[in-house]
Each structure stands twice: as structure tokens, then as C-alpha cells.
From TrEMBL:
It comes from Mucilaginibacter straminoryzae. Residues 457-599 form the PA14 domain. Belongs to the glycosyl hydrolase 3 family. It comes from the Bacteria. Residues 1-21 form the signal peptide. InterPro entries: BXL, Fn3-like, GH, Glyco_hydro_3_C, Glyco_hydro_3_C_sf, Glyco_hydro_3_N, Glyco_hydro_3_N_sf, Ig-like_fold. Keywords: Hydrolase, Signal. One of its GO terms (molecular function) is alpha-L-arabinofuranosidase activity. Transmembrane segments: none annotated. GO terms for biological process: arabinan catabolic process; xylan catabolic process. SUPFAM superfamilies: (Trans)glycosidases, Anthrax protective antigen, Beta-D-glucan exohydrolase, C-terminal domain. This is Glycoside hydrolase family 3 C-terminal domain-containing protein.
Length: 864
């Protein structure tokens, strides 16, 4: 009887424990996410809490918490992955002035991110860049064309940036009515952050007046918080008014959380907390830096891990554990919001199949988006579009046959890219097209490869040996003989050689070079990963980064002497691997052979500009005109200017296709070229889109999201964050091409606006009816732009964008557009009260198809 009672009691106890385990609040998907997070946090030790506050978040198996990677990227596609769909760089998408298309792009991006993540989880993989928190969009103001990361932004205007950023966030996070978020988006880099790259870790921005802060630098962040419900905000590296942004109680506490009501996560930029004591010297050590960051409102640290010292900070009384709890509740709330703590059966996004990745629909979307980015800046004598029946077309230039250039930065890898050469080939027969690189992007020399004068073990070329580990250990898995310049990549899921992994591998490349001349040889090395070059056993060049970066060294050689060359390479972390290597004699560029080659061409298309390998984030590129990823000169590199000038003097009509992520001061090109197309970095379908525009299969409709200046003389010092003299809103000189400008193959007429009322009172909006007519002979799309200016406001901007609409119109048709401007459209800085408010007075509404005064008409209203 006693045994039966014990068994019965044990059974009841077991059932009770099971029921309790099933009903713990944090395990209940029917409870609010924050309620679940608070319950879970009560069950964590301090050490476990700290482990959750790093970008690679530690698992807590006893509570069912899995490893989680806060740092993934989705700037214009799910980054650091392949194959995925790669859309145009954000600055190009901004040129579309099409926030609805941008939403479609990021809805597709989030589908692909979920599909890839679903696949990783099935395989038991959990790596950085493979998770559901994506640090996008970059809504900093592109205030100066020298900034290398401006390509990641949506331009120089706060309103355009806000509208585009809202679409990005909504596309990434999914419908607000859904039970779970599709992804977590992140507004970065908060705040007042837009170069220079080389000084960002120690810069103190202390010259920002309140008007610039509220009207220029923060509106997009506020819009994403209050209108898009963005779930993460990333604080920036630099100091603002003496405080590191990630330790600023004013930015993170007062403005972000108190004034704007942000209740979600703040993540640090990578290494920003360790900058407190290593670069800014605002904290004495990691312990004080960690306490300062968390108390200010930073919840997750990326890289550096000063947060490891949080237990010490608690022990020393610098911070209380309840402050740590606030951060962990916030971050766990968002993990519950993703559904990653729940059964996949409950999460609709967990059912997205891998087949959506780079699907035909997404390929078409990449092409559609690329079409809309292309901006026609000049078209003398209507030389464009080109006829497909031209006898000869010459395609010249360093970007013509460069697929990777089209991918931009912070990119994934497409399964297929159509570059400019391939796009133009699709329009012409082989005997119609002449192609020649013509010149380098920046250098006035070309390299004759020395591989032809090299051999190893009696075989011409370079011997390659591969290991499926990062340390060249054990038995090699493959060998190969390379007979030309090395150009290897894992982009597109390619292997360096058959049998070699796409990650966690290493390689050695060996040859003996016996030059036929005495003089200098240049060695050029470009790598994503770590590489080191040895000549006769001596290390002469190293290159290592998470992005592909060029470097070179010149060494003297003697004719007939043998030189042993060895290049070692290893793939780093889980980044895509990329290796380019060449060496040989440099020869000056002359254009006599080029001119002979193109002598019969009816027209020359010059595909030039710059490249993401030259402009970008904190890059060690030190070439004339470039410093640390930024530019010191905004003109086209001189070798390209010389090439275009030579072609023009030879009597050729030159069409300039400019590829760049920033504005180029192309004054000589505007004089020497019949037409200019600004094509940005146009993504996987970029070459096809460019060819479609050149040959009239698509009528360009892009508008500049940034001002194109005539020279650096029109700009203040790069480190000066005052907006005076910058962008269309504050510059007083005439630009080369104004913000909002872009031509079409048809003509449009914007008629006189009709106002429903010329006087409004508090909380009333304005309704305008504006006729837009396509007066040309082909269908096209115009972008109507509405700007406001408060009369008498001499300290404010000359005008500021407040609305835009894309208007597709058949030839000969007119549409009466109705534009609604809500009351808050008239907000300006209030000198008396601080912040933004609508102030009584007279306002001018300027409307047209660019910010240039000659392209604008106006009506006036009064606010009482």
C-alpha cells in the first residue's frame, strides 16, 4: 500500500512539474513579448544576462535560449551570403524617388533573409551575418560627396531619406498586424554621422547648431521610430558635444526614449564601446565604458566586448543589476517578437522556402529597380537613345567589364550578374561592337603580367595548393596550375578549386619569376580575407580585410635572375573569399592604339567613374584622390579624363556612363561628352538596365538625390558639420547638376497649381491640384517635387522637400495630380522654444521637377 501511495505521489509530482514547465510565462506564446521577457530575465544569472548583450549572443540551454547573432546586414540584399538577389546600392534607389518600389525590394530582401535563415537552422548552423536582426537602413544625411559611405544612404535630403527609410523598415519587418516580425530592422548611425571615415573613432562633433540637429540630422531617425516602428537603433562612433554617441544620455535617453518614445533596442556600432577608453578617452577602462554605455541606454555591444566587464562594474557599484535587466528585457522582447523562441509551426515566416531566393520574380524586381535608378544628366542633340542599327559602337572604360563594381558595398553575391559589356552585347551583333578597357580606374599605367615568364616544377604559371582549414595544415585537398593573373572568388558559391570549401580554407601560390628585363616590377594584391606575399622568403606585402581592397608594391629586378614568389591566403570568419594577384612590368597608358581600334565607331560609350573598391567604410586605400575610403578629390580620376578628352579630340561622340556611389564633379565631361548617364552601383541586373536605357528600351526617370558640385571649391571643410553652404538646401552657388534633376527621352510640362485654400489654421493640411502633361512622343515618367520655404526665415534653408510623386504618363496625356501636404509639413525650427513646430506666417510652396529655381513654380499660403 505504501509503495502504491509513493508511486501515485510521484506521478502527481511529475505531472505537476511537467505542467509547470509548460506553463512558465516566458514559454507561453499567447502572452505579450515583454511579459515573457521579464519573466525570463528573472531566471537568468548576471553572467547569463551579460552573455546575451553581445552581438554574438551566448546560448542558455537550461532555459531554451539559443545562440543568436544580432549583427547581420541587408543594405540592398541579404549581405555576406550567396547566392542572393543583389539590388542597386541605396543611393541609386534614392534616385528613383519611388518609396513604393523600395518597399517591394525590401519585402523581397526579408523573404530571402528568412528563407536563408530557415535553411541555416535546419542544418544546425548559427553564424554571424546569418540571422534575423539586420543592421539596415543607413539614414545618415549624405552631407558631403567626399564621404565614402554616402553610397549606403538615401541622399542629402531629410524628407527623402525619411520616406525611403520608412519603406525599408516596413519591408524588412513585415506587417505591423502580424504576430511576429519578419526581421528586426535598425536605423543607423545615430546621430550626426557622415564622415570622415579616418577620424570617426576619435572625432568630437561640437559645431552642430540646434537648427541643423533638428531639421537635418535627426528627422529620419525620428520618422523611423515614430512612423515605421523600427525595432533597433544603432548609435554612432564619434562624440557629439563631448559625449560618445553610444554613451550619450541626451541622444539615447532624453531625445530617443523620452521625447520620441522609443522603447526597443539600441545596439552599438562595432567597437564603439571600446572606443570610449581607447580613442575618445572619455572612460578610463572597459569597466567604466561598459557601465557608461548601459546606463546611457545601449543594450547590445558589437565587437570589443567591454560588456564582459559588466559584472565587475556591478560589483564596484558603478551600475546596479536592475539597469542590466532593463537592457536584457528589451533585447529578449525582440527575440520573442521574431518568434525564434517559439515553435516554427506558430511562425508563418519560418515556412518561407529557399526557392524564393533570387527567384524569377526577384530577378525582375532587381531589373525594375535598376531601371528606375538610372539618371540622365545630359543629352545634347538627343544623341540618346542610340539606334540598334548603328554600324559600329565602341564600348570603352574600366567599369565596362566589371561585375563586382555593380554590387556596391555591404553586398551579397548574386548567382548571375549582367555587367555593362554583357548588357550592351545583348543589343548588338558581334560585328557591331568594339570593346577595349582603354584605361585603369585611377592609374596611368597598365601591367603586363609576369606570370608568362614564371614557372614552377617545369610548368608555366603559378602552382596553387589548397587546404580545407585556415592554417595550411595536413594533407592538401587540391592543387592547380594557374597560367594568368589570379582572380578567384567564392562569390556566387564558387570554389577556388574543385574540392575546396567556400569557408575555412587556406591556400599557397608558388612560382619562380625570371624577368626578361631589369627595372621595377609592380606586385598588385587584392583580397577579402588575409594574404601575405613573400619574395625570396621575405614578407613584402600584406592585405587583409572583410572587404576586397587593393594594395601594391614596386620592387627592383634584374634580367635573367630567378625570384621565388609565394603568396599565402586564408579565408577569415564567415566572409566571402576573394583574391586578386598580378605582377609584372608597368607600361604607361597611350591612346594611339585605342584610337586606331575605334576609328570606325559611330559613337563611343565610355563606362567609367569609380568603384566600391575605392570608396567605402574605413578602407586602407591610399591612392591619389582617396583616403581611408573617403575621397580627397571629387573629380573623375585624371587618366579617365585624359581618355575621354582624347576620344573627343579625335572627333568621336562620347556617351559617358558614370558609375559611382557619390557625386562626381564632371565639369570637363559635361563639355566633352554628348550625353551623361549617372548609373550608381546598379546591382545584379545593372548592365542590362544600363543597356536598356542607352538603346531606348527604357525611358530614364531617375532624379539626383544629391547635389553634383562643380568642384571642392563649392564645399566647406569635410570635418565641419555645419550645414552652411552644403546641399541644395544651403548652398548659394550654382551646382553642376542640382538635387532632384534628371532628364527623360520625352518632354513634360507642369502646369499651374490650384490650392483648395490659401489660408489654413492649426492642424489643417493643404491640398494642391497640379496638372502634369507628357508633351513628347514617347511614354515616360516624371517626378513631381514639392518644396516649402517660410518667408522671412533668412537663417533657414532656401527650400526643403516636403512631397514627391512619380507620374507615369503616356505620350500626349495629362494628369491632374492631387498632392496633400499635412500640417506638419510646415514644421521648422523654433528659435524660441527649440525643436520643430509649425509657426504662423507666410509660406511659399515651390513645385516642379528639380530643386533648380528655373524648374520651379510657386504659390503662397498663410498659416494663422
Amino acid at each position: 500500500m505504501k509503495l502504491r501511495i509513493n508511486l501515485y505521489t510521484s506521478l502527481i509530482l511529475l505531472c505537476s512539474l511537467t505542467a509547470t514547465a509548460q506553463k512558465l510565462p516566458y514559454q507561453n506564446p499567447n502572452l505579450p513579448s515583454e511579459t515573457r521577457a521579464k519573466d525570463l530575465v528573472k531566471r537568468l544569472t548576471l553572467k547569463e544576462k551579460v552573455g546575451l548583450m553581445k552581438d554574438i549572443s551566448d546560448p542558455v540551454p537550461r532555459l531554451g535560449i539559443k545562440k543568436f547573432n544580432w549583427w547581420s546586414e541587408a543594405l540592398h540584399g541579404y549581405a555576406n551570403q550567396g547566392p542572393v538577389s543583389v539590388f542597386p546600392e541605396p543611393i541609386g534607389m534614392a534616385a528613383s524617388f519611388d518609396d513604393q518600389m523600395v518597399f517591394k525590394v525590401f519585402d523581397a530582401v526579408s523573404d530571402e533573409a528568412r528563407a536563408k535563415n530557415n535553411d541555416y537552422r535546419k542544418k544546425g548552423e548559427s553564424q554571424r551575418f546569418h540571422d534575423l536582426s539586420v543592421w539596415t537602413p543607413n539614414v545618415n544625411i549624405f552631407r558631403d560627396p567626399r564621404w565614402g559611405r554616402g553610397q549606403e544612404t538615401y541622399g542629402e535630403d531629410p524628407y527623402l531619406t525619411s520616406r525611403m527609410g520608412i519603406s525599408v523598415v516596413k519591408g524588412l519587418q513585415g506587417p505591423s498586424t502580424a504576430k511576429y516580425r519578419k526581421l528586426l530592422a535598425c536605423a543607423k548611425h545615430y546621430a550626426v554621422h557622415s564622415g570622415p571615415e579616418w577620424s570617426r573613432h576619435e572625432m568630437n562633433v561640437n559645431d552642430v547648431n540646434p537648427r541643423d540637429l533638428w531639421e537635418t540630422y535627426t528627422p529620419a531617425f525620428k520618422a523611423l521610430v515614430q512612423e515605421a516602428d523600427v525595432r533597433e537603433v544603432m548609435c554612432a562612433y564619434q562624440r557629439l558635444d563631448d559625449e560618445p554617441c553610444c554613451g550619450s544620455t541626451r541622444l539615447l535617453g532624453q531625445i530617443l526614449r523620452e521625447d520620441w518614445g522609443f522603447k526597443y533596442l539600441v545596439v552599438s556600432d562595432c567597437g564603439a564601446i571600446t572606443d570610449f577608453y581607447r580613442s575618445h578617452h572619455s572612460s578610463s577602462d572597459a569597466t567604466h565604458a561598459a557601465a557608461k554605455a548601459v546606463l546611457s541606454g545601449t543594450d547590445v555591444e558589437c565587437v570589443g566586448y567591454a560588456f564582459d566587464k559588466i559584472p565587475d562594474a556591478v560589483k564596484r557599484g558603478l551600475i546596479k543589476e536592475k539597469e542590466i535587466d532593463k537592457s536584457v528585457v528589451r533585447l529578449m522582447t525582440q527575440r520573442f517578437e521574431l518568434g525564434e523562441m517559439d515553435d516554427d509551426k506558430l511562425v508563418s515566416w519560418a515556412k518561407i522556402p529557399l526557392s524564393v531566393v533570387n527567384s524569377p520574380a526577384h530577378q525582375q524586381l532587381a531589373l525594375d529597380m535598376a531601371h528606375e535608378t538610372i539618371t540622365l544628366l545630359q543629352n545634347r542633340n538627343n544623341v540618346l537613345p542610340l539606334s540598334k542599327s548603328l554600324k559600329k559602337v565602341a564600348l570603352i572604360g574600366p567599369n565596362a567589364d566589371d561585375s563586382q563594381m555593380l554590387w556596391g558595398n555591404y553586398n551579397g553575391t548574386p548567382a548571375k550578374t549582367v555587367n555593362i559589356l554583357e548588357g550592351i552585347r545583348s543589343k548588338l551583333s558581334p560585328n557591331q561592337l568594339i570593346y577595349d578597357k582603354g584605361c585603369d580606374l585611377t592609374e596611368d599605367k597598365l601591367t603586363e603580367t609576369g606570370v608568362a615568364e614564371s614557372n614552377f616544377d617545369g610548368k608555366t604559371g603559378v602552382k596553387a595548393t589548397y587546404w580545407n582549414n585556415r592554417n595550411m595544415e595536413g594533407t592538401p585537398v587540391a592543387t592547380d596550375q594557374i597560367t594568368g593573373p589570379i582572380a578567384l572568388t567564392t562569390f556566387g558559391a564558387h570554389q577556388f578549386a574543385q574540392g575546396v570549401n567556400t569557408e575555412a580554407f587556406s591556400a599557397k601560390y608558388e612560382t619562380v619569376y625570371k624577368p626578361s628585363f631589369s627595372g621595377e616590377v609592380v606586385f598588385k594584391l587584392e583580397a577579402t580575407g588575409f594574404s601575405e606575399l613573400f619574395v625570396d622568403g621575405k614578407s613584402v606585402l600584406k592585405n587583409g580585410s572583410w572587404r576586397s581592397l587593393p594594395s601594391k608594391i614596386n620592387l627592383p629586378v634584374e634580367a635573367g635572375k630567378s625570384y621565388k614568389i609565394e603568396l599565402r591566403y586564408k579565408q577569415l570568419n564567415n566572409w566571402a573569399a576573394n583574391l586578386g594577384f598580378n605582377f609584372g612590368k608597368e607600361i604607361p597608358v597611350t591612346f594611339s592604339a585605342l584610337l586606331n581600334k575605334v576609328k570606325d565607331a559611330d559613337v563611343v560609350i565610355f563606362a567609367g567613374g569609380i568603384s566600391p573598391r575605392l570608396e567605402g567604410e574605413e578602407m586602407p586605400v591610399q591612392l591619389p584622390g582617396f583616403k581611408g575610403g573617403d575621397r580627397t578629390d571629387i573629380e573623375l580620376p585624371s587618366i579617365q579624363r585624359r581618355c575621354i578628352d582624347t576620344l573627343r579630340k579625335a572627333g568621336k561622340k562620347v556617351i559617358f556612363v558614370n558609375c559611382s556611389g557619390s557625386a562626381i564633379a564632371m565639369v570637363p565631361e559635361s563639355e566633352n561628352c554628348e550625353a551623361i548617364l549617372q548609373t550608381w552601383y546598379a546591382g545584379q541586373a545593372g548592365g542590362q538596365a544600363i543597356a536598356d536605357v542607352l538603346f531606348g528600351d527604357y525611358n530614364p526617370s531617375g532624379k539626383l538625390p544629391v547635389t553634383f558640385y562643380t568642384s571642392l571649391k563649392q564645399l566647406p571643410d569635410f570635418s565641419d558639420y555645419s550645414m552652411k553652404g552644403r546641399t541644395y538646401r544651403y548652398m548659394t552657388e550654382k551646382p553642376l547638376f542640382p538635387f532632384g534633376f534628371g532628364l527623360s527621352y520625352t518632354q513634360f510640362n507642369i502646369g499651374t497649381a490650384r490650392l483648395d485654400q490659401s489660408t489654413i489654421t492649426q492642424n489643417q493640411g493643404v491640398h494642391l491640384t497640379i496638372p502634369v502633361a507628357n508633351t513628347g512622343r514617347v511614354n515616360g515618367t516624371e517626378v513631381l517635387q514639392i518644396y516649402i520655404k517660410k518667408e522671412g526665415d533668412t537663417a533657414g534653408p532656401s527650400k526643403t522637400l516636403r512631397s514627391f510623386k512619380r507620374v507615369p504618363l503616356p505620350a500626349g496625356k495629362t494628369e491632374n495630380l492631387v498632392v496633400d501636404l499635412p500640417y506638419k509639413s510646415f514644421e521648422t525650427y523654433n528659435e524660441d522654444g527649440g525643436g520643430l513646430s509649425v509657426q504662423p506666417g507666410k509660406y511659399e510652396l515651390l513645385y516642379g521637377n528639380s530643386s533648380d529655381p528655373k524648374d520651379l513654380k510657386s504659390v503662397k499660403i498663410t498659416i494663422k
